[in-house]
Amino acid sequence: MRKQWLFALSGPLAVGAGLLFLGATSEAADHAEAPGVRSDPAADINDLYVFRSTDTGPAFDRTVFIMTVGGIGGTAFSDKIEYRFHIADSSTTPVEQTILCTADNGTPQNVTCTLGAATDTVAFDVVDDTILANGMRVFAGTRDDHFFFDSGDFTTVLNSCLGGTCDPSELVDNTGTDAFAGGDTLAIVVEVDNALFTGTSVLDVYGTTTRIP
Q1: What is the pTM of this model?
Q2: Which of 12, 153, 162, 181 is the most buried (most CB within 10 A)?
């Protein structure tokens, strides 16, 4: 039987809150941080995504976790940062689990992600479609930031609101220019077998980054 997950997203040090229902998506973006966070871009989380795998077949009862970090233009993960997906079911006594990802400082760089006894190590920017026997598959590298933001229209609307005649029409006319087009971000993608989770059909998920000595 396929498990039917619902996802609740939250984000201390991560992203704005959202809710992902089966068959839908929930996306929250966090760009242009406060000065304290911008001063440590390697630890700055842009976005957090969680969704059911769209692959079909008995081997693909799986969930995908994605964290993008480092703003626009990052070229490598920090070997001084721990990247974590915190996951808990919604049972009366929640079962909490953590996907921990770390990077080395090698060339090429390697990134290792662990969930309980399941571990996968991948080379930076290398796509490997092999699902390990432990049920995990990982990608870590650069990807186009698909968050769309029209800074020109946003500024126009903001100025109109500050002037006392708020006119949002520029944001709902189905036109616009993506200020982030062509900008890469660093992405950690972890796909895991749902058998690694226990409990009810709702998962609470948030992401954090922690700087280590």
Answers
A1: 0.74
A2: 153
